[in-house]
């Protein structure tokens, strides 16, 4: 029984007839109640997992439907801003610029929601040994043009060793594109972002350090919560959804690693991803 409702039956057998008495019943009742609680907990967990899977599926479908119109609208607005539809007045340029920034936010939100839904979907990705040097190198190469355009010095300090870790190539790429992208995004012109790989015994540390705006101390405990953005990040003109770091932490922990952060406002931030090396 659980809360006066039957949830199952406990069968006890003996080799002789009329073997059980009141003492045996008193002894077995706590065991039956414990079994009932376990059954209820299992059913609740199953229902919760089904609910999470349904929520992830809904987010995935909804964001897929949103991605195409948002991308198309952004393409049209950028074409108009470039003058392909004729010369714009100063006021028109300002208004279209605002629309473009909001569309940037929507596009970023859609992409982050898709990543979040993929991480929570039933059935994990097939993990395998992955060359970490490649994932980090691709992230730096991808974000180099953005850093140059902004006037931020982006430097990679590679490791000569082959650093193989357990995970998926797409997941690790997502981790480091997010971390390096954030570092470039929140570092003002004239600043620097340094990405370094270093092996220590059976582990590897990937450090992404910047000279950006930093993170307030009171914001650090909430940094990996979904939809959370530090106050100074929200106050900036940079587009953000507050989902990126939650996705990064989920992936890093799924691959058996951990992520650490050190930061001081006005001086910069350092993220450290620590993963176990795989012997091949």
Question: Can you give me a brief rundown of this structure?
Answer:
About 50% of the residues lie in helices and about 15% in strands. It has about 280 residues and is of the alpha+beta class. The strands form 2 sheets. It has a 5-stranded mixed beta sheet with strand order 2-4-5-7-6, with helices on one face.
Structural key phrases:
single chain, 280 residues, alpha+beta, Helix Hairpins, Heat Shock Protein 90, five-stranded mixed beta sheet, two-stranded antiparallel sheet, 51% helix, elongated
Structure commentary:
This protein has helices at residues 22-81, 90-120, 132-150, 169-185, 231-235, 244-254; strands at 128-131, 153-157, 164-167, 192-200, 203-210, 258-264, 268-276. The protein is α+β, with helices and mostly antiparallel strands and 280 residues long. It is 51% helix and 16% strand. The mean pLDDT is 86. The strands form 2 sheets. The chain has a 5-stranded mixed beta sheet, covered by helices on one side. Strands 1-3 form a two-stranded antiparallel sheet. The protein contains 6 helices and 7 strands. Strand 6 and strand 7 form a beta hairpin. The chain folds into 2 domains: 1-123, Signal transduction histidine kinase, dimerisation/phosphotransfer (DHp) domain (Helix Hairpins, Orthogonal Bundle); 128-276, Histidine kinase-like ATPase, C-terminal domain (Heat Shock Protein 90, 2-Layer Sandwich), CATH 3.30.565.10. The longest helix is centred in the first third of the chain and has 60 residues, at 22-81. It is elongated and about 95 Å long.
